[in-house]
Amino acid sequence: RSNITTFNVTLTFAREVTPIVPRRVLAIDLNALHNGVMWGVIEEGRIIKRKVERPDLRAIERLQKEISRMDSLCAKRGEPYCRQAAAAESKLRRILRQFIDDVAKEIVETAVKKKAMIVVDVPKDESLREIKESNYAPERKIYLDVGRLRRRIEQLAEWYGVPFREQRLYSTVCPRCGAKMEELPGRRVKCPKCGFEAMRDEVPLLWAAKLSTQPSFLIPPRSQSI
């Protein structure tokens, strides 16, 4: 009625890239972030580099306690405690966002340097949903948003022409004989059939190493150009 027209502007950045022809595999096992993001570089069926990334758990725990305390005071006394609670929550989000950006950058830069295809094992949505709806400690649920990290890795991979795919990499199925493994204390697993034993978070890398020996595995799932 006022004859004012509004519109939105979306900026799209694009560039041409030459997709990397992969000679290696960089496999990533995305767990709840407090358990660590395990990734490794695989060449000819061997793991030549591995690393575990974790956010600053102590800093996050301190902030969570501060948020809880400020929320309680906010309910009783109002401002300025409500503002302090909001500031602590904002700082907590920044810490996790920075962690995700740093890990994604390091992984993709390594993939470019090693000429590796990125292969990601992401927990199933229903598995994460069951955890969120269970009696899982509320302060730990903040670590379950692994989808944000996966998306950031994929975005950077596309930008730099790194082949990217999602692949089921088992953590409780024996990479030697294929039997279901038993879970032990300390996030270890053991195969009752052949006796294989390892840290649970390392098993997906062993599956990736096994799959990488198949000639078709290093074929990019689709061409990538941006």
Tell me about this structure.
The chain has 226 residues and is α/β, with parallel strands linked by helices. It has helices at residues 57-77, 81-114, 125-133, 146-160, 203-211; strands spanning 24-29, 37-43, 46-53, 116-121, 164-166, 182-184, 188-190, 197-199. The strands form two sheets. The chain has a five-stranded mixed beta sheet, with helices on both faces. The chain has a three-stranded antiparallel beta sheet with strand order 6-7-8, with no helix packed on it. A hairpin with a 3-residue loop joins strand 6 (182-184) and strand 7 (188-190). Helix 1 (57-77) packs antiparallel against helix 2 (81-114) and helix 2 (81-114) packs across helix 4 (146-160). The chain is flat, with a radius of gyration of 21 Å.
Question: What secondary-structure arrangement, pairings included, does this model have?
Answer:
Layout: E1 24-29, E2 37-43, E3 46-53, H1 57-77, H2 81-114, E4 116-121, H3 125-133, H4 146-160, E5 164-166, E6 182-184, E7 188-190, E8 197-199, H5 203-211
Parallel strand pairs: 1-4, 4-5
Antiparallel strand pairs: 1-2, 2-3, 6-7, 7-8
Helix pairs in contact: 1-2, 2-4
Work out the number of β strands: 8
Shape: flat
Question: What is the percentage of strand-forming residues?
Answer: 15-25%
**From N to C, what is the helix and strand string?**
EEEHHEHHEEEEH
Q: Based on helices, strands and strand pairing, what is the structural class? A: alpha/beta
Describe the main β-sheet briefly. 5 strands, mixed
Show unreliable segments: none
Radius of gyration: 21 Å
pLDDT averaged residue by residue: 87
Number of helices: 5
Distance N terminus to C terminus? 42 Å
Range of helix content: 25-40%
Sheet with most strands: strand arrangement: 3-2-1-4-5
